[in-house]
Amino acid sequence: MSIYLIKRGPRCSTHKAPFHPVVIASLKRVARWEAGWTGDAAWIWTHETSNGAGGWLIERWSGLDIDYGHVIRGGELPDFTPMGFVHDRMEEPWSLIAGAIWWSDKPMPGWLAQAGCLYAPDAFSQQCILDKVADDGVSGCRRERPQWWPIPAPMVRHEVTTGARIPNGTVVAYARLGEAPVRATVQALFYLTEAPNGCYGECYDVVLETGKIVSPSRRWLETANPHLVEGEDTE
After folding, report:
1. What are the phi and psi torsion angles at 110 (to 5°)?
2. Which of 85, 121, 207, 211 has the most CB atoms within 10 Å of its CB?
């Protein structure tokens, strides 16, 4: 049975959720999903799970899959990265294990833990792992967490009070997809952060006439009510 180490490509500028540059998956389909398409420029190495002996076989190089045919041969890639198995523990991917995230709902092999591999510390990543392992087309449904996972740090709310925005107390038009707009009152503008490195986009809390509070994205609400934005942009 193999495990798969993925070194992700550069973080997308629009990716605001917690981001882990190196993950180790126990399922090939999960590894392929996390590595993304060619343009994501991720790397994949595989290794047997039994123990830390042997080497890691490079199977994707900067987003490009390597076809060894029926025999694995050595060689060099365009940036002089060696093909085949990597045995030197001072080289990648061995040097990437410390701090990598175990992307599985199963307990990680002991030799990975000793090398510094970690369980996902944030709720966003934990939910992503459970959703992708389940592979049932459902996401964000609060699946049961393994008992050995760390309790994630709470999300922290930060209110935005300066710069161009729709002021608190302003009545706006709010509409769900396919429904007629209704009146709502802006209560606050905020964003959320989540350890270790997540920073989610800004949203408004608005109170509907029914008393229900909803939180549409800042861009959506301001696009729907551009004449209500006041103040100067601080950027």
Report:
1. -60, -35
2. 121
| Residue spans per domain, the chain | 2-134, 156-228
Rounded to 10°, the helix 123-134/28-35 angle is 130
Is 0.90 topped by the overall pTM? Answer: no
- Cα dist from 75 to 41, 90, 108, 160, whole Å: 20, 19, 32, 54
Place of tokens 């209500």: 228
Q: How far is CA 22 from CA 49, 195, 222, in A?
A: 17, 16, 36
* pLDDT tens profile 34-91: 999 999 999 999 998 878 889 999 999 999 999 988 888 888 899 999 899 999 999 9
CB atoms within 10 A of CB 53: 9
Contact call for residues 174 and 161 (beta carbons, < 8 A): no
Rounded (5°) CA angle 143-149-151: 85
H-only helix segments in the chain: 28-35, 110-114, 123-134, 218-224
